[in-house]
């Protein structure tokens, strides 16, 4: 039974903002798929690579593509789109001026992506300092992708974690991921949609796999985003 908002916490749906969405036509297809999966809210999280571009250049592109999308969806019955970013975690990011502009919606929640290979210790210091000194709430994107030693460290730091729905669809990967869910360590679910192939049908399957835990996670996500209860 539906008890809250279905929230896709991680999606590449801004037209031309990154490699996840080619243009406005694709963005509209992605949102239509979200609607068919009964998703209420999609957080648009274009990639920000601080080692490759300035924050100013990223924000300019994000604003332009978000405005384009908002103009197109105005008055249409589609999920609500909230602005965020998927920030590639780099050492020194705790000192970046304007880091707060990357938070999701009106919240102090910020989504970080780790390297796929084993992380260097300074990245954990960066995360800690973002939390302690910038007073932001870092959420770790798709922890299903990282080295298990990194995952253990992130969870030991009590950082909220997000899972990609597609990983829960894999019988062989599911068991470990469900142990994180049952330990209360998963705060969000994402499609991480790039293109239109993989995403919302997997989100629906993940809902079925998670059973009653699905709505517990959605409620935690709602709080992370500081959305009103429904
Ligand atoms: Fe992503």
Please, could you describe this protein's structure?
The chain is of the alpha/beta class. It has one domain (7-224): Metal-dependent hydrolases (TIM Barrel, Alpha-Beta Barrel), CATH 3.20.20. The chain is built from eight helices and nine strands. The chain is globular, with a radius of gyration of 17 Å. The mean pLDDT is 96. It binds fe (ii) ion. Residues 10, 12, 86, 192 line the site of fe (ii) ion (FE2).
* Overall average pLDDT: 96
Order of strands across the main sheet: 3-5-6-7
CATH class: Alpha Beta
What structural class do helix, strand and pairing data support? Answer: alpha/beta
- Domains, number: 1
DSSP helix fraction? 40-55%
Characterize the biggest β-sheet: 4 strands, parallel
> What overall form do the CA principal axes indicate?
globular
What proportion strand?
Answer: 15-25%
Question: From the coordinates shown, what is the CATH architecture?
Answer: Alpha-Beta Barrel
CATH H-tier superfamily: Metal-dependent hydrolases
Q: Name the poorly predicted regions.
A: none
- CATH topology grouping: TIM Barrel
Radius of gyration: 17 Å
The number of helical segments is 8
Quote the distance from N terminus to C terminus. 14 Å
Q: In sequence order, what are the helices and strands, one letter per element?
A: EHEEHEEEHEHEHHEHH
Counting DSSP E segments of at least 2 residues, the number of strands comes to 9
Q: Which molecules are bound besides the chains?
A: fe (ii) ion
